[in-house]
Amino acid sequence: CRRFHSHRKQSSNIKPTNAEAAGETNTSVPVTNVIKAVAFTGAFTVGCFVGATILEYENTRSLILAKARQARFGWWQGRTLGDPRDYWYQLKSDFRRHWDSLTPGDKMFAPILLCNVLAFALWRVPSLRGTMMNYFTSNPAAKIVCWPMFLSTFSHYSAMHIFANMYVLHSFANAAVLSLGKEQFLAVYLSAGVFSSLMSVLYKAGTSQAGMSLGASGAIMTVLAYVCAQYPDTQLSILFLPALTFSAGAGIKVIMGIDFAGCVLGWKFFDHAAHLGGAMFGIFWATYGAQIWAKRIGLLNYYHDLRRTKQK
């Protein structure tokens, strides 16, 4: 879940700084901040998919070169270059063996989990509280608008918050990665997080209810909605209630219905606008993503020619 902390709600466990407390009576969102948020979302999304395209090229190239080296020097690469009795060599070998045994989804989930845990730990450092409030919570009425839209998607204040979000992400990551590929998944996940923050900004601006939001659930809702749209007949269950099963298609409709009601009725415990925006992004990508991703071929060819020119 992505938490929403309205300025009007004083019982939040995230305490505002003195400067923020002084501005609590002003819940309006400057139009310039909305424009910045829209521009940042567009630029960040394009950057994510351009970066994913280049990453795909480099990963494919490295794989081809590794296969070529293995075919040519396989007898040499099979030799042990370290002492098996050495502690660090053994530790490295065990880590590599464990990493190779992970599913593609787990390999993508691990660094995302690490980033979220690191941000969670930084919230525990009192001297960093002001920095975390400024950069790791998204507030459309704040002076800093753009980068918090991204950084807040890795930010959780409570242990239950981060556990719930990471549990859901882990449950659906492998299906999404197998369907999209790791590079496309990364671009979708990162851009979806910023897009869901934008939906939150627009909702708060439209309702004049500025407040802080944080959490990965906007991006996670994209992964969830994408998987549910791709595999609507898959049977799902709820943690601690394994006997209660339902189809993925029905589940995402109920979740989106609840978030829509939350937006209409003004519920503030969760950032329902961000949830709904993330789900819409996931369904959009399940419907049109394959056609959009196919358009990267031109960029791949351009990057290939550019790289070959630099090597001459």
Describe it for me?
There is one protein chain. This protein is mainly α and 312 residues long. It has 12 helices and 4 strands, in the order βααααααααβαββααα. The strands form 2 sheets. A two-stranded antiparallel ribbon has the order 1-2. A hairpin with a 2-residue loop joins strand 3 (235-238) and strand 4. Helix 2 (31-77) packs antiparallel against helix 8 and helix 7 (159-180) crosses helix 8. The longest helix has 47 residues, at 31-77. The radius of gyration is 22 Å and the shape is globular. It starts with a strand and ends with a helix.
Order of helices and strands: EHHHHHHHHEHEEHHH
Helix content: 55-70%
Secondary-structure class: mainly alpha
Strand order of the largest sheet: 1-2
Number of strand elements = 4
| Mean pLDDT rating | 86
Oligomer: single chain
- Main sheet properties: 2 strands, antiparallel
| Low-confidence parts | 7-13, 15-26
The best one-word shape is globular
Note the total helix count. Answer: 12
Strand content: 5-15%
| Radius of gyration (Å) | 22 Å
Distance from first to last alpha carbon: 51 Å
Topology:
Layout: E1 3-6, H1 18-22, H2 31-77, H3 87-101, H4 104-122, H5 129-135, H6 146-151, H7 159-180, H8 182-207, E2 211-214, H9 217-230, E3 235-238, E4 241-247, H10 248-265, H11 272-294, H12 297-311
Antiparallel strand pairs: 1-2, 3-4
